[in-house]
Amino acid sequence: MDVGTALSFAKVGEIRVHRGPISGIAVSPEGRLMVTNYGADSVSSIDAGSAAAVRTLTGLDEPFAIAVAGRRAYVSTVTAAYDAIVAVDIDTNRVVGVHPVACSVRDLAASPTGERVYAGRTAVGGADLAVLDTGTGHIDAIGIAATAGTSTECVRVSPDGRRVYVATNGASSGKLAVVDTHEKRVVDTVEIGSPIRDVAPSWDGSKVYVASCGPDFGAVVDVVDTRTNMVAATSKVAEINGLLVQLALSRDGARAYLVDDERVTVLNTHTHDIVTSIAVAGAPSCAVESPDGSHLYVADYAGKVTVFTVASTAAALLMADDEPTAPHEWVLPELLQLEPAMT
C-alpha cells in the first residue's frame, strides 16, 4: 500500500471469547487467531478466515505471553512451583509439550524457523534470556542484566533470526539489549529514556521501533538503526494520554499500531505522522494484523476481539457502474470448550 494513500479502518464485527481479559494475541500464517485468557486459565483458537470461533483449551495456569511459529503456539504459564513454556498444536488445539523454566517469564518470541523459543526472564539479581530448543527441549540461558531491580519487558526476533532484541526496565528508564543468536551473547545495548513498553523490528530488519511511556515524556517511539544500534529518530506521540501497552507493525511495515487503554493510534512509519486513531470499547490490550494485511484484530480486557478492515480510501470508492453492497456483519457462534489440558 502506498505510503501516501489514505487509510480507513471499518469495524466489521466482534468475536466474544467470554473468558475474561485477553492478555496476548497472535496469528498463524493461515490466519488462525490464538488468544490467551489470563484470568480464565485458557487459550482460545479462532478461525478468523471463516469468521468462526473454534474452541478453547482450558487447564493452562495463568497464560500470558504467546508466540506462533509454524503449526505451534508457545504460551507462558505460571504456577506456584515454576513458570513454563507450553507448546500447543494449532490444528488440534492440544498441548504437545510443557517446558518448566526457572525465574519469572515476562515475554516470549519464536525464531522464524520455529527451532528456538526465547523467553525473557526476571529474577532477584537481574534479567536473562532463556533459549528453548523446540526439538530437544533443552534450555540455555543468556545473561542480559546483572542489576537487581531490572526486569524484562518484551522479547522480539529479527526477521532473519540472527538477532534477538530484549527490552529491560530499571527504576526510571529502559534499555534495549541486542543479542547475537549465533554467539549467544549481548553484543550491544541501546539506552532509552523512558520505561519500554514494546519493541518491533521492521520486516527488512533495518530498523527496530521502540515504544516507551513515562510520566516525564509521555508516549514516545524511537527508531533504532540496526547497523549502528543507535537511535536514528524519535517521535513523541501527543495523541496518547493513557498507558501505552503494545506496539505492532502492519504487514507492509508502513504503519505502527500503538495500543493504549482507550484506543489504537496508527503511526505512519515513513513520515512519523499520526494516520488516525481507532476507538475500541472495553480497554484494548493487544492487536495484530491478518497475514495478508486486510484486517486488524484488537483484543481487549473485556474478553472480545474487535475486527476492522484495513483499506485505502481510493480502493473503497465505488466506480460509476458499481452497485453498492450492504456491509457484512460477522455473526459468530460461541466458543467450544475442550477438556482441560492438564490434570
CATH class of the domain at 22-244: Mainly Beta
CATH architecture of the domain at 22-244: 7 Propeller
Share of residues in strands: over 45%
Radius of gyration, CA atoms, in whole angstroms: 20 Å
N to C succession of SSEs: EEEEEEEEEEEEEEEEEEEEEEEEEEEEHE
How many beta strands in the DSSP annotation? 29
Low-confidence residue ranges:
314-343
- Average pLDDT works out at 89
The H-level CATH homologous superfamily of the domain at 22-244, spelled out, is: YVTN repeat-like/Quinoprotein amine dehydrogenase
CATH topology of the domain at 22-244: Methylamine Dehydrogenase, Chain H
Report on the biggest sheet.
5 strands, mixed
Task: Please describe what this structure looks like.
This is YncE family protein. InterPro entries: Haem_d1_sf, Host-pathogen_enzymatic-act, WD40/YVTN_repeat-like_dom_sf. It comes from Mycobacterium kyorinense. This protein is mostly beta strands and 343 residues long. The chain has a domain at 22-244: YVTN repeat-like/Quinoprotein amine dehydrogenase (Methylamine Dehydrogenase, Chain H, 7 Propeller). Helix content is 1%, strand content 57%. The chain is built from 1 helix and 29 strands. It has one helix at residues 313-316; strands at residues 7-16, 22-27, 32-37, 42-47, 52-58, 66-69, 72-78, 83-89, 94-101, 104-110, 116-123, 126-133, 139-145, 151-157, 163-169, 174-180, 185-192, 196-201, 207-214, 218-225, 230-236, 244-249, 255-260, 263-268, 274-279, 284-289, 295-300, 304-312, 336-337. The strands form 7 sheets. The protein has a 5-stranded mixed sheet, with no helix packed on it. A 4-stranded antiparallel sheet has the order 1-28-27-26. β23 and β24 form a beta hairpin. It is globular and about 45 Å long. It starts with 6 loop residues before the first strand and ends in a 6-residue tail after the last strand. Mean pLDDT is 89; it is low at 314-343.
